[in-house]
Amino acid sequence: MTDQNLPELLEQAADRTPVGPAPIAGIVTGATRVRRRRAALTMVGAAAAAIVGGAVVFAVPDGPSNPQPLVATPEPDPTPAGMRLAGLGHAAVAVPQTWSTNVFRCGVPMEDTVIVDIGAALDCNQPRPEGVDSVTVDQGDGKPWRFTVDDVIQIGGVPAERQATTCHLDERVRICAGTVYIPSMDVAFRAESSTKTAVDRILDRIQIFPDQVGVPGEYRAKTKEEYVEALSAAGLTAEIRTEQTTASAPGYVLEVSPVPGTMLQPGDAVTVTVSA
Amino acid sequence: MGGAEGFSEYVEVRWPRLVRSAVLLGCTPAEAEDLVQTALTRCFVHWRKVERANDRDAYVHRILLNTFNSSRRRRSTGELPTASLPETVSADETQAVDLADAVTRSLDQLGNDQRTVVVLRYYAHLSEQQMASVLGVPAGTVKSRLSRALKALADDPNLAELRGTT
């Protein structure tokens, strides 16, 4: 143990920690907010405007470690390997392929999952398990509950509102959450995780896909007609199958395939299973 | 804003090392990422000042340490009860005994001041002069802390076997 081999030992110990890509966008958003707040406090309006303007066009260099540009780009980046898209309308977020869709209990995610438009969920005080990452996508509900606009960002040239990521303790589990709301599409993405960095990283992966559209959700409460209408509003077509069941009154949607949130080309067919 | 590009380049390059520095200081990997993000956010607020400071590394590490120390302070007074207490120490000890664990354990034996100087000097590779400015203490104090830390590490039984192999 001398100071010759100490750097080497520290290096080896440190290398054991896997480190994700730097959340530059999150840092810039956070700093912009602080600057703006301070500028407002000191009444230096002009300085604040300059900073705000600078931050919006600030580009994150492209590269494997930075799948998301902050700058307005008409063409979305290709989805990184090992990721899949989940979204509604033309907005989608890339999540790891290992994430499930709509695995929740009483509206609370039970594993790493995407929750697509489940509508109202029964609140049964289900505690959130530790270490679960999730993103909830909703469309057509207006601004999310208790949403505050902390920053205005551009996603693929579309203005979006960002609620800052904050953390709290819920039943002794630390939950950090942040929200992006796209007013022109009325789509909201709310990411939750145990760390701020993870939340910002998820929300950085939201993109706009002008040529694709997400399969609508909230089908369980809908009749065949209502869901088919939602499909055609999204530009998709329906392929109806009926199934004899006692679990549901006739005429209601039992299942849709592919799962809600899947991004399809307009005109593609969605198989809708309806109770008979 | 020219500063923004400089900043994103800087973060791109330094992010992994800063996060790992925080882990060596005693954070869990998740805590470390949040800590570094908070510190870098503070740095970016004053990025022009940081660039003017002529020594970005020293400045960034000072902010990182301040952020780290204030997070610890809050925890020790119990104002923010952390539910799961994900302290690195116990997590590491359940893993197989290997070199990295021995290093982490021996760092855990050091006091906060000594641990900090070891990480800054031998992992962040700051000079003694830079460390003096980061820690806000005279260079002589940095030297004496370092030599005491090295002595403590040399006497640490956790690293005894490593001494034989190197």
TrEMBL record, chain A:
Keyword vocabulary terms for this entry: Membrane, Transmembrane, Transmembrane helix
Keyword Transmembrane: yes
Cited Gene3D superfamilies: 3.30.10.20
InterPro entries for the chain: PASTA_dom
A Pfam family of this chain: PASTA
Regions that span the bilayer: 39-60
Record's protein name: PASTA domain-containing protein
Source organism of the structure: Haloactinopolyspora alba
Domain (PASTA) ranges: 209-276
Source organism superkingdom: Bacteria
Automatic annotation (TrEMBL), chain B:
Domain (RNA polymerase sigma factor 70 region 4 type): residue spans on this chain: 102-153
SUPFAM superfamilies membership: Sigma2 domain of RNA polymerase sigma factors, Sigma3 and sigma4 domains of RNA polymerase sigma factors
MF-aspect GO terms: DNA binding; sigma factor activity
GO biological process, one term: DNA-templated transcription initiation
Pfam families tied to this protein: Sigma70_r2, Sigma70_r4_2
Organism: Haloactinopolyspora alba
InterPro entries linked to this entry: RNA_pol_sigma-70-like (IPR039425), RNA_pol_sigma-70_dom (IPR014284), RNA_pol_sigma-E_actinobac (IPR014325), RNA_pol_sigma70_r2 (IPR007627), RNA_pol_sigma70_r4_t2 (IPR013249), RNA_pol_sigma_r2 (IPR013325), RNA_pol_sigma_r3/r4-like (IPR013324), WH-like_DNA-bd_sf (IPR036388)
Family membership: Belongs to the sigma-70 factor family. ECF subfamily.
Keywords assigned by UniProt, alphabetized: DNA-binding, Sigma factor, Transcription, Transcription regulation
Domain RNA polymerase sigma-70 region: 17-76
Protein name: RNA polymerase sigma-70 factor (Sigma-E family)
